[in-house]
Amino acid sequence: MKLLKFVPDNTNIGFVRVRKIAFAITAILTVLAVAAVGVRGLNMGVDFVGGLMVEAKFASPPPLDKVRSDIDAMNVGEVSLQQFGDPRTVSIRLPLPESSDDGATDKLVRQVQSTVEAKYPGVTFSRYDAVSGKVSGELIQNGILAVLLAVVGIAVFSWFRYEWQFGVSTFVAIMHDVLMTLGFFAITRLEFDLNIVAAVLTIVGYSINDKMVIDDRIRENMRKYRKMDMKSLIDLSVNETLPRTVMTSVTVMLALGALLAFGGHVLRGFSAAMMLGIVIGTYSSVYVSSSLLISLGLKPEPAEKKSGGISSKAERVGDGAKP
Question: Of 23, 159, 177, 297, which residue has the fewest beta carbons closer than 10 angstroms?
Answer without folding.
Answer: 297
